[in-house]
Amino acid sequence: MKQRTSHVVVLGGGLAGMLAATVLAEHADRVTVVERDDLAADPVARPGLPQHRHAHLLPSTGVRALEALLPGVVDALVGAGAHRIALPTDLLALTPSGWRRRFPGRRFALTCSRGLVDRQVRRRVFVEPAVELLDGVEVTGLLGDARRITGVRVRGGGSLRADLVVDATGRGANAPGWLAGIGAPAPEVEVVDRAVVCASRAFTAPASARSGFPAVTTALDPRTGAPGRASLLTPVEDGRWLVTLVGSDGVEPPSDGAGFAEFARALATPLVAELMAAAEPDGGVHLSRATANHRHRYERMSLAPVGFLVLGDALSAVDPVHAHGMASAARSALALRAELRAHGLTAGPQHRAQRVLARAARPAWTTATARDRLDPDPVTRVRRAVSRRLPATAALPGSAAGLAHPRVLSALLRGGPPDGGGAAPPFTAEERAAHPFLGARR
Ligand SMILES: Cc1cc2nc3c(=O)[nH]c(=O)nc-3n(C[C@H](O)[C@H](O)[C@H](O)COP(=O)(O)OP(=O)(O)OC[C@H]3O[C@@H](n4cnc5c(N)ncnc54)[C@H](O)[C@@H]3O)c2cc1C
Description:
Layout: E1 5-11, H1 15-24, E2 28-35, E3 57-59, H2 60-69, H3 73-79, E4 83-87, E5 91-95, E6 98-99, E7 107-111, H4 114-125, E8 131-135, E9 139-144, E10 149-154, E11 159-161, E12 164-167, H5 175-181, E13 189-192, E14 197-204, E15 215-218, E16 228-236, E17 240-248, H6 257-265, H7 271-277, E18 280-281, E19 286-288, E20 293-296, E21 308-310, E22 316-317, H8 325-343, H9 351-372, H10 378-389, H11 406-414, H12 429-434
Parallel strand pairs: 1-2, 1-12, 2-8, 5-15, 12-21
Antiparallel strand pairs: 3-7, 4-7, 5-6, 9-10, 10-11, 13-20, 14-17, 14-18, 14-19, 15-16, 16-17, 20-22
Helix pairs in contact: 1-4, 1-8, 2-8, 6-7, 8-9
The structure holds flavin-adenine dinucleotide.
The site of flavin-adenine dinucleotide (FAD) has 38 residues, from helix 1, strand 2, strand 3 and helix 8.
């Protein structure tokens, strides 16, 4: 029989922390999730989740991982107002080569506010008797020494003892400093920063468009490292749209309503500006500059203290433009589950589990940094060269294997795009008929 651990403390009650708690509860008598925010009112919006103001898209790989961890959660999300966007059918995407064609495909994404995902996950995680929530409590440091972590310190002078501490405090994680505070080594950090700035505003959609309206995106040009402008409009719950405008490499979307509209109008297509003009603003514009790709190489620490694991954005946070963070958190929790079911959770070294978590976060890191690197490695240079020959596709193949796709190869061999991008937004006749505000766009 596999050994059980008596008490695990998970730092951070965001997506990665809650999913980790679910997984760890299979192997521990008690899992305590310590969250700085007060969650008593089951909030969708809260200070510890500033990214809830920005458009979030959960791709099908993430949806499947989430459902595998918490069966029924996807139906609950859709029931609470999340939209299931079929890709590329329900996405109007303007790429550097024109509007992407819409056709039935197998991929899809869920769109809703970031906070709604957490709420539905939270409602499933904290019904598990072994998992308890300690909210309104801020972790301020680690207990232990360079050999073993034995718990955490919390604001106000208290502490919590644990056999295992799992850090899921997100992009702003302080663990490297906390480790230094107890005389433990800190991990190496890698940073790839394209200086992406996101500005977002919520809108009440026009009455006809509160359900069944496609998402709209204007992609950053992945073929240059030049300053860029992009946008994403996603339908979310309660008949609203979330519009995120993106600037990179020195371009910054404004944080006032008029400037926000103007920035949208100056994009490669004014479509998002026109859609916003047909909708009702719901609150102000919110800016985020916390977008750099950065990862901590905990798995490489030969002298890492026992009793400590890191996952989610605290381990590897990627540029949000690539929409990988939530899916990566879900896939990491799934990988941790497989690892612990195979090898158990012991009170001994966690190097092996940390390596599994690092591996699970790697695809998102590789894809995001390959696209963001201004001084690309050889593989990225090949991908960019291929992309110059590709038509209206917002995304390049995410892996070297993808380059071997017949469509990519045929584009290369023919020296031109396999299908052309359109010049006008490809709304269907039904959409134009259903939404009078599209009237001018025929
Ligand atoms: C502008 C923007 C757009 C994005 N768009 C997408 C998208 O479209 N698709 C996608 O998949 N991802 C997107 N992301 C990324 C996604 O939001 C993150 O990857 C995801 O939230 C990471 O989850 P996490 O649990 O690791 O961290 P978080 O969700 O940040 O959770 C960390 C938690 O830890 C708590 N905490 C922090 N410090 C302490 C402490 N000291 N003590 C106790 N608690 C603490 C916080 O309150 C918070 O609840 C976007 C991010 C941004 C900024």
